[in-house]
Specification:
This protein is α/β, with parallel strands linked by helices. The chain has a domain at about 5-155 and about 240-285: D-Maltodextrin-Binding Protein, domain 2 (3-Layer(aba) Sandwich), CATH 3.40.190. Helix content is about 50%, strand content about 15%. The chain has helices at about 5-10, 15-20, 45-60, 80-90, 120-130, 130-140, 180-190, 200-205, 220-225, 250-255, 260-295, 305-320, 325-360; strands spanning about 30-40, 65-70, 95, 145-150, 160, 175, 190-195, 210-215, 230-235, 245-250, 295-300. It has a six-stranded mixed beta sheet, covered by helices on one side. Strands 2-1-3-10-4 form a five-stranded mixed beta sheet, with helices on both faces. The longest helix is centred in the last third of the chain and has 35 residues, at about 260-295. It is globular and about 60 Å long.
């Protein structure tokens, strides 16, 4: 799609065009402070840690030439306002997850998560070596942004429910918190889908404003306290097998930096990518054991529900295909995922199954 025509017709064209008129700062050599806003409430386990890691490491690696000040959700702008804030130049960068902003463009789903989509490793294969980076540059430049993958939570849990889910019919009328295309899938099953910032989910669940929620996984969910409200926990979900957190910088700000400073931001994001994933994976098993010891009932969805998830996901992912940028990202993403999966299932997947059998894991 032609960028100019997109900006003319898009609902966010005004904000993106305004970002394009900002004068590039003229202080590439001097010390400067960059403001990072975030979709995460301060202290949210893992995700806020990832944002803080990026802020601290950029500051340290530039020896103070860049000082990044992190503003958690609500401290400067709201959780769902960070995209516009950085696009327009109100803030310099944001840390978040971009399926929150699919109203800006549906292709943002491919750089955060699609249901039944890529795992963490498969995304990295695509982004770094199989065309994903070029597509990200094309898409995000429309909004005056520069995108970097900055961490994954690993496969997310199916969520917390106030009742057991025995068939697809049990989603009918269920008030459930799930953002992105995963939430659109539940909508097709009859759920009333809510998109609520992470810092507000506990209150919504505890007051009955929602009947259930997904969040991240055992460690972050335990820290959020959902086990105090309900004991029904589905450990495997379809919606986010490898969600990618992002570090997005205002493009003109990024281009005003020195080559060395730009490299630092890119490499810090890359380091955060692996650091964040290992943070979650290192803590999840112990947290799951504590949840179970505390009376949480660990559940798995029946096959009929998985089948309904799959049918809904195919419909949802196919719906925006008339948008040329979305289709280009979709085709590249799916081709790369199929290629990665063919080898991973034949190598690591087969090995892991045999290792767990032989070692009684």
């Amino acid at each position: 799609m032609d960028r100019r025509s997109f900006l003319t017709t898009s609902a966010v064209g005004g904000a993106a065009a305004a970002a394009g008129t900002l004068a590039a700062p003229a202080y590439a050599q001097g010390k400067r402070t960059l403001t990072m806003v975030s979709t995460w409430g301060r202290g949210l386990a893992g995700v806020h840690d990832s944002a803080q890691y990026c802020a601290d490491m950029i500051t340290a690696a530039t020896d103070g030439q860049l000082t990044v000040e992190l503003k958690a959700a609500g401290e400067l702008v709201g959780a769902f306002e960070v995209f516009d804030a950085v696009s327009s130049g109100q803030a310099d960068m944001y840390h978040g997850v971009d399926y929150y902003f699919m109203g800006q463009h549906p292709a943002l789903s491919f750089f955060s998560q699609v249901p039944f989509g890529m795992t963490f490793q498969e995304f990295n294969n695509w982004f770094y070596h199989d065309g994903g980076r070029d597509l990200a540059d094309e898409l995000y430049s429309i909004f005056g942004l520069k995108f970097f993958p900055a961490g994954s939570t690993g496969p997310q849990s199916g969520g917390w429910f106030n009742k057991e889910i025995n068939s697809p019919d049990d989603f009918q009328g269920l008030k459930f918190r799930m953002p992105g295309q995963g939430g659109q899938v539940l909508g097709k099953l009859g759920a009333s889908v809510q998109n609520i910032p992470g810092a507000e989910v506990y209150q919504a669940l505890s007051t009955g404003a929602i009947d259930g929620t997904e969040w991240i996984g055992p460690w972050a969910d335990e820290a959020a306290g959902f086990q105090e409200i309900t004991k029904t926990y589905y450990t495997a979900g379809f919606h986010e097998p490898g969600p990618m957190l992002s570090l997005n910088t205002n493009l003109e700000v990024f281009e005003s930096l020195t080559d060395a400073q730009r490299t630092v931001i890119e490499q810090v994001a890359r380091a955060s990518n692996g650091w964040t994933m290992s943070l979650f994976m290192a803590n999840n098993s112990a947290a799951l054991s504590r949840l179970q010891s505390g009376g949480v009932k660990l559940m798995e969805f029946p096959d009929s529900v998985w089948d309904a998830f799959g049918a809904g996901a195919k419909e949802v992912v196919a719906e925006p295909m008339d948008d040329p940028i979305y289709k280009q990202c979709h085709d590249s993403y799916m081709e790369s995922m199929a290629s990665s999966a063919a080898w991973i299932s034949s190598s690591e997947g087969a090995y892991t199954a045999q290792r767990n059998r032989v070692m009684d894991l």
